[in-house]
Write the C-alpha cells for this entry.
Amino acid sequence: MGYLTGRRSFKDLSEQEILALAISSEEDDARIYRGYAEFLRHYYPHTAEIFNDMAQEEDDHRSKLIDLHQRRFGSVIPLIRREHVAGFYARKPLWLSKHLSLEKIRGEACMMERAAEQFYLKAAAHTSDASTRKLLGDLAAAEAGHTRSAQDMTQAHSESPALDDEDLTAKRQFILTWVQPGLAGLMDGSVSTLAPIFATAFATQDTWTTFLVGLAASIGAGISMGFTEAASDDGTLSGRGSPIKRGIAAGVMTTLGGLGHALPYLIPHFTTATLIAFIVVFIELWAIVWIQNKYMETPFFRAAFQVVLGGALVFAAGVLIGNG
C-alpha cells in the first residue's frame, strides 16, 4: 500500500536499501540523543552524559554498518530515510521533545531503542529470503545491543547520587512552573468569585443572571491572572520556567475555579442550583488544601485553616451583601 501514501513498502526494499536505511536511522538517533544531552545539560548534567554516551554507541554502530555496506555494495549509499518507508517506526521531532519532562525524555529514549529492535525482528520474520532474513536479524541484534548498552550506562550513572539530585530538580521545576501558578489561580478563581456569584444569587434569586455574572467573573479573572503571571517573571533569573506555561496554568485554573460554582446556576431551580454550588465550593476548597499539602508541603491543618477560613469569610460577605 506504499504507493497510496507516496512511500515505499519495506518488503520492496533491496538489501542495499535496507542497509542504507539502517545507516540513516543510526545517524538520526545519534543526533536526537545529542540534542537531548544539549537540552538537559544545564539542569541535569549526569543524564546529559548518559545521552552523550548513547549517541556515541549509535555512531559506533553506524560506522560498522557503513563498513559492511562498502564491502558488499560499494561507497555510494542510497538516500533513504524512515519517512520514505511505509510502516517504519517514527521518531518525534526534537523540538517537540524539548517540552517533555526529564522522566518522559528518559522513557522516550527507551522506547526508541525497543521500537527499533522490534521493527527489525518483525521484518525478519516476514521475509523468505535467507540473506535478507540474516541481515535483518543482525540489525535486530544490534538494536538489542543498543538497549543493553543504554541500560548499562544508566545503571553506571545511577550509582551516583547526582541522579537523585536531578530528580529533585525536575520535581522542583514542575512545582514552580505548573503547580505553584496553577494553585494560585485555583485559589483566586475559587475564593475571589465567591462574593460576586453568591451576592448576585441571593440578591436576584435569578439563576441565569447569577450564571452570567459567574461566567464573566471567572473568564475575566482567568485572563487577568494569566497575563499577570506571564508578565511578572520571565523565569531567567528565578528559574520558574516558561512564562507562557505559568500563564496558562494560572489562567486556566483561575477560570475553572470560578466556573466550578457558577455552572450549577444553569439549573433553573434556584434552591437546587445553590445547594449544588455549596457542594462544589466545599470540594474546591478541600482540593486546594490537598494540593498545598501534597506539593507545597504545607501542614494539612494549617492549610485547611487558612483556606477554609478565607473561603468562609468571602462566602459570608457575598451572602450578606446579597441579602442586604
About this structure: DSSP finds twelve helices and two strands in the chain. The radius of gyration is 28 Å. Strands lie at 8-9, 85-86. The chain has a mean pLDDT of 79.
